């Protein structure tokens, strides 16, 4: 059966750790593997990092740029070279590819989000392998994915993929960073979101020299993907052929089982496409109503409001520790909410001087995280 497969490869797998030069044999094997998947009728998207790493190698820079402007300039040098390498390899294999550079802004506006999906569907329908990266050269700080793990999960969710592969320089997820904790325990299967929380995985710092985000961003990417019903696998980029074996049922790497009842596409856009403009801190009663009873959020259960936002913007719903439990689209702006938080819905018209919505966030616009 035709599957939609998103494969993300990190800088650490695309380059050799000692020299920073391209890991040509891994990249060539990856290209061959993806072409084989295409030949079997699967729809394939590659999310490739490497613009900054390849740009640095081209310019003779020996460490990752620290300033944003330098990073953006270096990415502009590297992205073209990276695509040239992919185009050469895929052309030999007679596989058309496309470059898709995205910024977070492309997913915030619903019409642009849907348009991005249409473009992917059209490319996949044409048998093309889209090669996606963040548009680092123009992305501004507030509108960034920040790392390609998150980007790949959002793309997988957008196109409703069946599989997401996160290829990296370790063979799987461990209970802690195996580089600094030698007796860290390997994890083969994570069966639910709750199990992922219970495992309390230690992720240490930044990851490898050229990587962004390390294991932490892979775990949050897995959360986004499994909520969308996508089976997610963390495995080693040095052995791309394992992707085929995994699809055939071998338990290589770390598997994250998809949520049995995936969150709807619109709610996924609210939860992960939009950028939250503020936070609402809820009392225990409101948390129970929202989480356990699946109810709408009323003003009475809001203890405090943080940030400035308009009505219909996304906000984070947090417990008293500040831990996020849900996201949703608000029916009131932050100024109004400051006035009505903690108050009964029937008091709203007299406080604001006009009739407002009964709910602060309707349950159709509310997503548990
Ligand atoms: N719990 C963990 N399990 C496995 N690897 C971990 C863990 N915590 C941190 N890491 C580190 O994450 C690194 C991979 O992240 P990163 O360098 O960002 O890779 P990529 O370039 O593939 O995105 C590994 O080299 C490993 O040292
Ligand atoms: N967009 C950046 C990569 C960002 C990123 O997440 O890198 P990595 O952790 O190596 O997957 C680039 O092309 O260099």
Q: How would you explain this protein's 3D organization?
A:
With 369 residues, the protein is of the alpha/beta class. Helix content is 38%, strand content 18%. It is built from 14 helices and 15 strands. Strands 3-4-2-1-5-9-10-8 form an 8-stranded mixed sheet, with helices on both faces. The chain has a 5-stranded mixed sheet with strand order 12-11-13-14-15, with helices on both faces. Strands 6-7 form a two-stranded antiparallel ribbon. Helix 3 (51-59) packs across helix 4. The longest helix has 25 residues, at 68-92. The mean pLDDT is 93. It binds adenosine-5'-diphosphate (ADP) and ligand VHF. Adenosine-5'-diphosphate binds at residues 10-13, 168-170, 173-174, 176-179, 201-204, 207-208, 211-215.
Characteristic terms for this protein:
369 residues, alpha/beta, 8-stranded mixed beta sheet, 5-stranded mixed beta sheet, 14 helices, binds adenosine-5'-diphosphate
């Amino acid at each position: 059966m035709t599957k939609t497969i998103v494969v993300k490869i990190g800088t650490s797998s695309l380059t050799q750790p000692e020299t920073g030069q391209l890991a040509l044999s891994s990249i060539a094997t990856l290209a061959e593997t993806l072409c084989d998947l295409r030949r079997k009728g699967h729809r394939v998207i590659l999310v490739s990092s490497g613009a900054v790493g390849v740009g640095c190698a081209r310019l003779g820079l020996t460490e990752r740029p620290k300033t944003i402007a330098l990073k953006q300039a270096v990415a502009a040098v590297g992205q073209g070279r990276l695509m040239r390498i992919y185009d050469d390899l895929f052309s030999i294999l007679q596989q058309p590819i496309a470059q898709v550079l995205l910024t977070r802004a492309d997913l915030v506006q619903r019409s642009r989000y849907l348009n991005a999906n249409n473009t992917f569907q059209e490319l996949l329908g044409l048998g093309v392998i889209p090669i996606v990266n963040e548009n680092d050269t123009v992305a501004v700080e507030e509108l960034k994915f920040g790392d390609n793990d998150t980007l790949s999960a959002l793309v997988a969710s957008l196109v409703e993929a069946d599989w997401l592969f996160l290829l990296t320089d370790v063979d799987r997820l461990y209970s802690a960073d195996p580089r600094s904790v030698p007796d860290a325990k390997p994890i083969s299967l994570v069966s639910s979101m709750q199990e992922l929380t219970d495992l309390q995985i230690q992720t240490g710092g930044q990851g490898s020299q050229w990587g962004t985000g390390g294991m932490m961003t892979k775990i949050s990417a897995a959360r986004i993907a499994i909520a969308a019903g996508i089976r997610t696998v963390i495995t080693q980029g040095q052995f791309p052929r394992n992707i085929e074996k995994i699809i055939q049922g071998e338990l290589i790497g770390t598997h994250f089982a998809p949520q049995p009842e995936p969150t709807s596409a619109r709610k996924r856009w609210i939860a992960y496409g939009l950028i939250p403009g503020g936070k609402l801190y809820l009392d225990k009663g409101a948390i129970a109503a929202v989480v356990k009873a699946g109810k709408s959020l009323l003003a009475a259960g809001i203890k405090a409001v943080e940030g400035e936002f308009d009505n219909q913007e996304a906000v984070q719903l947090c417990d008293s520790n500040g831990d996020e439990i849900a996201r949703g689209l608000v029916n009131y702006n932050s100024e109004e909410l400051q006035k009505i938080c903690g108050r009964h819905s029937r008091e709203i018209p007299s406080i604001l001087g006009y009739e407002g919505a009964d709910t602060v966030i309707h349950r159709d616009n509310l997503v548990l995280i």
